[in-house]
Amino acid sequence: MKTSLKGLLLAAALFCVALGGLSCQAQAAEKYVVASDCTWPPFELLDENKQPTGYSVEFLKAVAKAAGFEVENRNIAWDGIFGGVATGQYDIVASSTTITDERKKQFDFSDPYFEIVQAVILPAGKSIKSLKELQGLKVGGQIATTGIFVVRDAKVGADIKEYDDVGLAIQDLVGGRIDAVICDEPVAKYYANKKQDYKGKIQLSLRSQEKEYFGFTIKKGRKDLLEKLNRGIKIVKENGTEAQLIKKWMGD
Amino acid sequence: MAETEEKQSAANIVLVTDGGSVPNPQEFRLINAWSLSLTLAIVSLFGLCLIWPEPYLRILLYLPDGIVVTFQITLMSICFAVPLGFLTGLGRISKNRFFKLIASTYVEIIRGIPLLVQLFYIYYALSRFFQISGITSAVVAISVCYGAYMGEVFRAGIAAIPRGQTEASRSLGFTRFQTMIYVILPQAMRTILPPVGNECIAMLKDTALVSIMAVPDIMQRARSFVGTTYLYFETYTVIALVYLVITLLLSKAVSIMEAKLNYYDTKSR
Amino acid sequence: MTQNLDKTPVISMQGVWKYFDSLPALQDVNLEVQAKERVVIIGPSGSGKSTALRSINRLEEIDRGKIYVNGLDIMDKANDINLIRHKLGMVFQQFNLFPHKTVLQNLTLAPIKLLGLERGEAEDRAFALLKKVGISEKANVYPSMLSGGQQQRVAIARALAMQPEIMLFDEPTSALDPEMVGEVLNVMVTLAEEGMTMICVTHEMGFARTVADRVIFMDQGQIVEQGDPEVLFDNPRHPRLKFFLNHVL
Q1: Are A200 and A124 in contact (CB under 8 A)?
Q2: Where are the alpha helices (DSSP H) in chain B?
Q3: pLDDT tens digits for B64-99?
Q4: Tell me: the pLDDT tens digits for A69-125?
Q5: Do B168 and C96 touch (CB under 8 A)?
Q6: Neighbour-count burial of C113, counting CB atoms closer than 10 A to its CB (0-12 exposed, 13-18 middle, 19+ buried)
Q7: Touching C: which chains, 3+ CB pairs < 8 A?
Q8: For residues C77 and A221, what is the distance between their CA atoms, to the nearest angstrom?
């Protein structure tokens, strides 16, 4: 058993080396593959041509332009999005990933490119003043997102339902199968205010205190890429592109 | 000649299912595919947990409530799918054209739609008309889906019983219903049971799909664990082994039941 | 044909037609059988003799004509065919014993479930019949452990357990190894001697000659010739019967 495991690990290691080699080539061409889970409007979503778009995607494009590299966008399911960057299937995750200590153990993050809080959405007419009031309620969210972590860590005794994407959770909230949904505040706003179907049915009720920061996620140890990202982010923040993007995606 | 007919009736159905393969009840050798797989699975699982309790044991201990949910859904689905399959099988061989049409249409429709789509459909699409919980949706979708597959198993199992059995029974004065109860089903059980058992095991495996409906089964437990730890390799290794141990044990149970049903013709003259 | 005209026949087939798809299997079959009569039907394979026999207890549904058993129209929905079948014992070429039941259970199942006999009563009846067909020692084994001849004797006993008035035999010895034919025929001869009304489709010409009151020759779905076995076998008139007998005997 032990030997076979060793063999497996060796094979896995070789595989990673091979993939690393491949991404080295990609690096030489200055073209990076970017993964986004396009179910998280307004940060990541698909346009009419089924191409990834949204704040994070466009922000990264601006970063690439500023830092002088190219990107190729891919739509990747949230569930395995970190696994793919770890094995080198793509170089950058631009998917509203909050920088957390736990994640930092496994991955490198760029400097923050956006600041958010978590928000709780409730059916219209209902409101809560603290997370404690979620006790005994069915609270939905996207699986393995910081929203879920916030409710779980608060230990308020909520019945947490983890969905594959936040849209399904909102759908269930509107349908009445769950009592609340927690997600990034801009996302909550998008669903509560911008989606015609949900108008008047749900509302944003509670914002968490702790701020979270989005960072672009890359495999550990890719110093050059990290440096490029951070340089680009700085430029984009300073040259007014950021303000334009915020207006475009988050303005009313 | 009679003897050949008997043998045919027992060996008539060859069904390919996606269930675990049921071990041959006549297999008494100590080392066979089943015992080897089970030993490997158990040794790997507990070996990993003993050698590296962090993270393997932690992963394993994260799962029990998920295992309960998986079993809950599987057992409830079996309770509905088997009777549904039986009725469908009867419908498919019915002389009544109406029942036959209903049963055949049901089978055609269900077999043409992936289970994952059926799950989404019942849970999300139909939520416009009625709201049922994730677990109920899972049970409904899986029962309806597997009812159709099992319908074919029942149909084939019943059809495999030689016509002479029905004729002998009817000629004694048994009604069609009595013939089914006293003569056909007891014999068909033995050809039906292994593939039905197989379907039940396949069903257990397919419950992994229900995590899309926010149902906290084994698979979703794994996904949330990975979501916080990013230990893809370790977590899914444990999950795969857990599923394997469960399905191997269940297939043995089916095999034992199968052997018990073979009481009347295992001995040769 | 001319005998017993004064009595009501226990079985009467009148102008019976049966088609398999569009092919006629029975073409205008007329047959009357009197109580205690022993009728043997012979003919080449595909001649419709089994179909004729099986239509008497409605294992085959006829397309035209009438069949009466004890004066009851078997195709009439008002007459419960299952009750009519109680009176018609049937023995098949392939025995068709219930393999999941012991010999004893094969004999007691129908009397208990259909006639409402107590288990003890049914078993007494079963043991008596097993003794009669000479295999009482096999009462508790499963059919798969019996030889073909033994199985067929059990099948006869199973039919008799319902105490039928008429026995229908559909080539009862055709599936047997030659050395087992005798033991089954002996049982049938005994039954005949006891005065059981019998209709038997068979290729056993010896049996037909010794046991039958009347032999019927069928070919191409029709009754071609019938009569006393001596006359029919020794002085066949119809060329098809002559041809058949030349090839069989």
Answers
A1: yes
A2: 2-11, 33-51, 58-62, 64-93, 97-111, 115-120, 134-159, 163-172, 176-178, 185-206, 218-229, 232-261
A3: 999 999 999 999 999 999 999 999 999 998 889 999
A4: 999 999 998 888 998 998 889 999 999 999 999 899 889 999 999 999 999 999 999
A5: yes
A6: middle
A7: B
A8: 87
Residues B213, B41 contacting (CB under 8 angstroms): no
Cα–chain center distance at A71? 18
**Is the CB of residue C147 less than 8 Å away from at least one CB of chain B?**
yes
B77-112 burial, b at 16+ Cβ within 10 Å, e below that, comes to bbebbbebbbbbbbbbebeeeebeebbbebbeebee
Q: Do chains B and C touch (3 or more CB pairs under 8 A)?
A: yes
Report the candidate in B183, B123, B132 with the shortest Cα–Cα distance to residue B158. Answer: B183
- Using CA atoms, how far apart are residues A250 and C178, in angstroms rounded to an integer? 95
Please name the residue that has the structure tokens 């001849």: C149
Q: What is the pLDDT of residues C37-51, one digit of tens each?
A: 999 999 998 899 999
Domains and CATH numbers, chain A: 31-115+213-250 (3.40.190.10), 118-210 (3.40.190.10)
| CA dist list (Å): C29 to C53, C56, C75 | 11, 12, 16
CB contact under 8 A, A161 and B134: yes
Residues of chain C with pLDDT under 70: 1-7, 249
- Residue A26: is it exposed, middle or buried by C-beta count within 10 angstroms (0-12/13-18/19+)? middle
Residues C113, B168: C-beta atoms closer than 8 Å = no
Residue of A nearest to B231 (CA): A83
Check if the beta carbon of residue C68 is closer than 8 Å to that of residue C242.
Answer: no
Closest to B145 in 3D by CA, of B137, B155, B134, B135: B137
The ipTM of this complex is 0.91
Q: What is the mean pLDDT of each run of 10 residues along chain B (269 residues)?
A: 42 49 68 89 94 92 93 95 94 92 94 92 85 89 94 92 96 94 92 90 92 88 85 92 94 87 59
Query: Are A162 and B230 inside 8 Å of each other by CB?
Result: no
pLDDT of amino acid B5: 43
Partner residue opposite A171 with nearest CB, options B124, B224, B230: B124
> What's the mean per-residue pLDDT of chain A?
87
Distance from CA of B213 to the nearest CA of A (A): 6
Query: SS3 for A237?
Result: helix
DSSP 3-state assignment of C90? strand
CA nearest to C137, candidates C104, C172, C159: C104
Do B173 and C82 make contact, defined as CB atoms within 8 angstroms?
yes
Q: Which residue in chain A is spatially nearest to B42 when comparing CA positions?
A: A1
Residue of B nearest to A1 (CA): B44
**Ranges of residues in chain A whose predicted pLDDT is under 70:** 1-29, 252
Which two tokens mark A234?
A: 């700085």
Is cis: bond before A42, omega within 30 of 0? yes
Minimal C-alpha gap between C204 and chain B (Å): 19
Task: Choose the closest CB to B175 out of C59, C82, C142.
Answer: C82
Q: What are the contacts of B108-112 at 24+ separation with CB within 8 A?
A: B110/B144, B110/B145, B110/B147, B110/B148, B111/B148, B111/B149
Residue B158 C-alpha, separation from nearest chain C C-alpha, in angstroms = 15
